[in-house]
## 1
Amino acid sequence: MQAKLKPFALILIILLSVVLAAGNYLMFAQAPFGPCTINSAIVGADLHSYSELQAACPNYMYYFVGAPLVVGLFLLLILPNLVTREEAAQEAKPAPARSESKKAAPPPPPPKPITDAAVQLLALFQREGRLVDFLREDIQPYDDTQIGAAVREIHKACRQVLAEHLTLEPVLNGQEGDEVTVPQGFDPSTIRLTGNVSGEPPFRGSLRHAGWRAAQVKLPAQPAGQDPKIIAPAEVEIPE
């Protein structure tokens, strides 16, 4: 444990020393209580003057003994406030919280679906098979023969788009009607349960649809400056 004076303590000690030195100088130079000596030759036979000298001497003795004593007592009284202890100061500081073991960073959230990619894929279906035109058109006035002929061409073109830009695979392997087991902890986004669903997994049921998963998406890069929200541009024919 090391004691160390505070900055203002040094200033206070210097001021007290200056005051004490100034008082000593005043006593020696000005002699406010009169001259002090016990040498009778100086005053001769003048008993009156000699008695005055004897009366002045105790006053100087009181000052030169009392002034340093008063200063010393004053410093002793305020000494605890003038000193700092480094160890105590360190203990006063709150101990830094121990860093807990680093927890594994949570996995990043899955990327949000890109709307532009969906629009781009729909644009491909429109460009190759006119799918948007077909879905937007009211087909009630047409008979089945007319619809069947149109659907055949649309189906062929859109199937080609799927084969070229998407690699699809089933979510569950099996044929429709096969018995399958849905394990505990399954992902509800990959398997949808229908029918009489009760209790806790695992569940056993019949496969109604194997589902589809896009294993790979291969969309062409869009030209710079093209509006990604455009499914199909408007066509304007300029006459010759």
## 2
Amino acid sequence: MKLIIFGPPGSGKGTYSSKLKEMFGVEKIATGDIFREEIKKGSELGRKVEKYVKEGKLVPDEIVIEVVKERIKGLEKFILDGFPRTVNQAKELLKLTKIDAIIKLNIHEEILVEKMLGRRICSNPKCDGNYNIANIHKVVEGIEYYLPALLPKNDMICDKCGSPLIQRDDDKEEIIRQRIKIYEEQTKPVLEFFKKETKIPIVEIWVNRPVEEIVNRLIEELKKLKI
């Protein structure tokens, strides 16, 4: 099972890829998490990408492709979160491996901004704990959103490892809207490339309900593909 999870920043790629990792034993490869970890470590890679990440800009293709190439080497089951983000990255990926399916998450911009401002992550770089303090219940263009807050059992403490929760440096409204704009302008065409140039099935899901309900929808759709 080789998957790509695709969607605008804040749509839940990290949450759903983590759930699929737990359920199917696939390796989760999240380029954003990799870069943030390298920045914290102060590595050579971290120094190269730090200015791009903090400004909400895309890291240059040649850096991202090399990182992904090393991570997927020899893997039979993985889910790519945050890659590919450009058509060039998509073309290079298809030279490296076969992709079984693409998951596309749909969500309106105003909901994205509210969700991302409420997002909290575990401060431990080795933990993938994700939470959200925003409580959303509204209708946008005919889509009803019911997204309860995802709170830890203890205030601002990760359930998984006990580390403090933090807000990511790039979860600020100005940067959030810039990242959404970049997605619309540069990343969205990747889907058009896959639709026109490949036969990879695309599973589209509206992220308008609690996590477990969306996970069940994803599983049902993947079962239909028999991958």
## 3
Amino acid sequence: MVIQRLRKYLSINRPESWGYRRQLIADRTIYFSDPSNFNDPLDCNIAAAARLRHALYDCRVFCLSLDSCNDFLMFAHYADGHRGFRLTFEIDTDQTIRDIGVLGRGREVTYVPALPSDFDLNNIHMSLFTKLDCWSYEAEYRILAVKTDGLTYGTSSLVEVAFGCRLNTDFEPIIRNWARDGKHERAKFMRARLCDGPTGYEYIDAS
């Protein structure tokens, strides 16, 4: 058994995004994004892939981070300046592809000082796993899919829900209700708070 932790940082400030948040937690259903809308204009946009752009854009991406990511920056950049929350999943990378489930079918992003000028067109999808070094703080892990409907994860995969230190407490019951509806067997609740320690913040039990 080799356990790997994966993190997902989420905002909750826009009601129009709540459907996706609820889907991910209460329905345990993965939602995939169109890579052409990513915040990095070079992401998934390697020039050598231009001839197969139509094929790449049929592919959708679900982005997570390894637990080696810069947690403070990820909360700042992807969880609305620490006003959002973080989900932590666990997968056993020793399992077979049949048993590991959708969360285990991704791979880590490779960070490079310069994007390649050429790419193996037989494996053009690998361009979706290559980013510039300046994004390495994300320690990103990506799952690709073309057919994205109904891809769900199990009730034991979500192990932690962490509230940001600036989260509006009115949102806490909403997130907790989603977790209850998802029947997550192992999920614990944590809350970030500012402190005098070396990192400037810490997590406390909020279960």
## 4
Amino acid sequence: MKIGIAADHAGFKNKEALKLFLEEKGYQYEDFGAHSIDPEDDYSDLVKPLAIAISEQKIDRGIAICGSGVGVSVAANKFKGVRAALISEHYSAHQGVEHDDLNLLCMGGRVIGTALIEELTVAFLEAKFINHGRFQRRLDKVKAIEELNFKNL
């Protein structure tokens, strides 16, 4: 699995800690930035390269962290093929993948701590989409909406 991570200044320290955790767990990842703390950076600029990589299927799953997690989730969902959600508890971290084929986990670095970020990351990365029945039907409907909205791009 190809994993991408990104964070703005508000999620930078969490992202750096997450990198160490991913390495300990044997995951390989690509860091899309920020690569240093810049209080003037914008979450939209930092999640954009990660969202593009997911949209172009160069990355299978992504993790983005900003202050609340809201900004990165809003911006990332503007890209075709990206299914991003703000997650702050265990059930949705795996259920979002299993039921909705979530491919970008968004978290708030100012809202949740390192231990929970690690727990949610593992739940997200270990989950698998249930690609049949109602789950596939629903995903197909979401993809049809996406095709309609991105058809002229």
